[in-house]
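Predict the assembly for these two chains.
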Amino acid sequence: MGISTSGQHSKNRIRIQDGFWNPFTELVRETVIPYQWEALNDRIPDAEPSYAVRNFRIAAGLEEGEFGGMVFQDSDIAKWLEAVGYSLASHPDPELERTADELIELVAQAQHENGYLNTYFTIKEPGKQWTNLHEAHELYCAGHMIEAAVAYYEATGKRKLLDVVCKFADYIDTVFGSEPGKLRGYDGHQEIELALVKLHRVTGEERYLKLAQFFIDERGTEPNFLVEECKQRGGYSHWAKKVLPIPTVRQMAYNQAHVPVRQQDAAVGHSVRAVYMYTAMADLARLTNDRELLEACRRLWDNTTKKQMYITGGIGSTHHGEAFSFDYDLPNDTVYAETCASIGLIFFANRMLQLEAKSEYADVMERALYNNVIGSMSQDGKHYFYVNPLEVWPKASELNPGRHHVKAVRQKWFGCSCCPPNVARLLSSLNDYIYTAAAVENTVYVHLFIGSEAQFELDAGRVGLLQQSRLPWEGYARFELTAVPGGAFALALRLPSWSGGQAGLKINGAAVSFNVVNGYAVVKRVWAPGDIVEWEPRLEAQLTAAHPEIRANAGKAAIERGPLVYCLEEADNGSPLASLSIVRGTELRSYMTPELPGGAVVIEADGRAEEHASWQADTPYRPLAELQGAVPVKLTAVPYYLWGNRKPGEMTVWIRTCSE
Amino acid sequence: MGISTSGQHSKNRIRIQDGFWNPFTELVRETVIPYQWEALNDRIPDAEPSYAVRNFRIAAGLEEGEFGGMVFQDSDIAKWLEAVGYSLASHPDPELERTADELIELVAQAQHENGYLNTYFTIKEPGKQWTNLHEAHELYCAGHMIEAAVAYYEATGKRKLLDVVCKFADYIDTVFGSEPGKLRGYDGHQEIELALVKLHRVTGEERYLKLAQFFIDERGTEPNFLVEECKQRGGYSHWAKKVLPIPTVRQMAYNQAHVPVRQQDAAVGHSVRAVYMYTAMADLARLTNDRELLEACRRLWDNTTKKQMYITGGIGSTHHGEAFSFDYDLPNDTVYAETCASIGLIFFANRMLQLEAKSEYADVMERALYNNVIGSMSQDGKHYFYVNPLEVWPKASELNPGRHHVKAVRQKWFGCSCCPPNVARLLSSLNDYIYTAAAVENTVYVHLFIGSEAQFELDAGRVGLLQQSRLPWEGYARFELTAVPGGAFALALRLPSWSGGQAGLKINGAAVSFNVVNGYAVVKRVWAPGDIVEWEPRLEAQLTAAHPEIRANAGKAAIERGPLVYCLEEADNGSPLASLSIVRGTELRSYMTPELPGGAVVIEADGRAEEHASWQADTPYRPLAELQGAVPVKLTAVPYYLWGNRKPGEMTVWIRTCSE
């Protein structure tokens, strides 16, 4: 298996036009980005101020005052600019661009003479730069600003912010490295690594790639930089505001810095940090043709997605450290499954697809996108889940402290928060996740079935493609070739895992057979302009079981339909949901209803409900033999991404099964 | 329903002689008490020192040094002396008594001139007495010393410690009260209330009863004493070692001080504090004929035992604050169910039985005793569970921080700990829980079926009773009347809830019918010496279901046999236990095996095991339709109190049910 060296960002252009996805991208453009701008400027009534813009004004010398917000507050500015960049690329907006230009001007003014840029250390701890990589997110913030600059440059062609971050990266390159006199360090929160790869892509500057490689390779080596750094600070902790015991190397698993990354086999520690790092590792494996790193990526991918991933594409089983726990430990009710972690998993999948086109990466990408990620956002774009549970009992969320982190309703988005801007930047750049093009092999891969106009530059020449999709409601996508090169090229259509390997393919109305290679139906031929390809993966509701080692789901099933995971809500099925079971052989009846936001397919199934009538409130336990049998009921399941949009109530993805 | 005013501690004498219980009481006498003495003297190798004896030596001026251990370290000395008292009562031991006498001498030397006694405030914060009732356990420690003194006095007739605590209580009475100039306060951890009732019992001194009443009545009134006290300390917290925000009255629910006790309807807050308080409330309701307090006790009993109690008699659903959460929230895996809380529940049940003989109190008492309490102790008496889970996955206990508090193996008992000495004092005074005698009504109630010799003083005269019991393995108890008065009196035998109301009664070999009053078979007659009563409540293994609102147990059943709850262990049934289900109509085959410690009845049942063979490690989810059916297996269940005595592994009380 060769390592593909073709990036997707060459000269390819993709623009989404899709009935399901347009409302999300419009929401980001019309609501999330403007709302976040107000938040960054401390203009949301009754919300804690963000201080993010103000910090830059103070750092730039335009205003007097104290630093406000978290140590990583700058990253909110960066994520907003990044989302704006993506948005402008697909949807020009002169006024928004002017606002962004002014903000970029401000950012530039806050930059030090030597290139350094960070308002926390500029305002609050001048002279303390690079003394607390472990906790202070300095390179993390740098990474986000780099991502913003790249996105903004690619959208507008304007170099201002790009120049700022290049100067900053050049400075960072003088501070960090294995050469004598440089810091052999790396950030406590990975992010800059993947950002430097992007900066290398748009600038062509090898130094940025090498710096990313340095950070990745240095991580977890002995002596452990983060531990030694803590010692040099005398154990002082930024977060605890006091001296703490020096952490052990093993505790650096939280930051994935307990062993060198190439030796890591299992996803551990803070899940967002982990997947951001894996993303950069996959980038580097591709760009440097590093087989050892590729093998590490595959191992970490396998462990993350096959042993530690919820069916919704959520990762992170515990809120203690927002972290992975261990294989098959996937509790539904004390879950974490942070939105940002699923977004990072999508980044990782995207980079693995650039490395090697295997449908399992796209399967996971789609799973995380259609369930965990879009489920995190309310239909008004102003309320978010940070934790995305698979089972909710609102009273327990309120009254059992072990479940306080699991919210039954999406929370109002206040100034300082990671997930909403991350959703914004993912959704506004979703066009980057639909296809990859292998120029040398003359193949266009279709990973996601999202309506879009696309152009690819293959070695054979330019390809124009118009995708129309009925996903997620129907298994149908139609591709019109709007431009074709003279020679042959291949269209590789993902055969989704949910199709059970069954799909129909028509070319110009005639059914054709196809070969499946690594999960893609590959059709290679000389195409003519106007050729129509119709792709019909089987899309039917089905019951899904979990691996028996996943104890939380024993004896249960989930309903899935195409890429969507379904759930039961109290609004449709009453309470307690635990009293319900689903008949294993039930017919699953799907129908579209306009009653759910945006219109959606709901599923009805045959179920059984335990009888409650014979129970007295004062009888907690009694002989099973006294119970009457369960009674037949109709179960109604709704797409997981729509849960919690009606009155607060119980929700569950996994449903007990019964035999008849 | 009249309130019985007959205490059980009048002139009644009960001595246990029982095949099941003797090993436990011997373990306490021969191992736990001597081992704890070594611990209190810091002589356990590799264990953290207790400092408890040393603190008294320092406070007495016999040694120089700093205070060691927790602020409530004195209570460990008290609990040990109390257990010694009970032990000496049933089993004289001159050497142990000499040791105890010397310790009591030391305690007396540490007492201040004015009666005050607390080594923490004597050594570490002199002058700060009574300034942090909320956190510093001053009256709590006093209460335990009072309980010790009462037990030691009743066992030995020696007044030394009794005089010490009377002097202390007299002093406390000058400090606390509603009179002008006195502190209108109470302890953050209830305990002294029930202790003062005992002190009143042995001394006849009304002031002690009134002081207990003051503490109970003052609690939760406005302005809230604990909140005001925090304000006076400027918010300084003993535990946090810094100034914290002043807590709200609502937060005082942790200490059951959020509203006056008479207005409390539901068990809230720290569960041990709660049941210690309810115990004193029941005492006071009985002794002062207080109907309002009785009604509060009944409400709190009902809520605790019918909405917030595990089937094992455990209470406290969350380790956050070792606390109750809310009705029907009884998670099996993130449980707390502290040993001390179940012991406190037994105290409460015992006091309710003194108030009114209703079998439901004894049912709960027996449930907590035979399951949660004795299950907490290892067979060597040196290892204990503080948390008593109903479901354990050892790997999750180790690797998921939300379950670190749930241990898969009993922990070595170190110097400072509450549960082991509490188990010791309960088991060494178990004779006090078997019977109550209503002298005026001339009735002897048998609550527990534990072999014992007993003497009661009824108005009709002296009754001598010899109970022999085959519990918990067989439903058979035999009573020989060894002494009888001239007139009639009633023997009231508990008809246990687990019998399903079915029992056989024989008198002198002849079956007789009986009336059931409040759950007791009451036989009133003029008895002759040598009369034999045989009582055979039906004792059969059965499956038990939980109330449908207890979501954690939906679709599951527990195996119970008489007073014992059973569980599945990995040692007998493999892993994961979640793959197993029990056939709803299964025969439950019981047999005695010598292979379990002490010999025990195990139960075999028909079950089903999900098939694992067709699952690949890399397939976390797949269509339910692809699964093969579950295969028949034999399930082996062992008594819960014996779990975790073999190699560490999974355990579960609640088992999924299947239909065939």
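Residues 303-430 of chain A form one domain. The mean pLDDT of chain A is 94.
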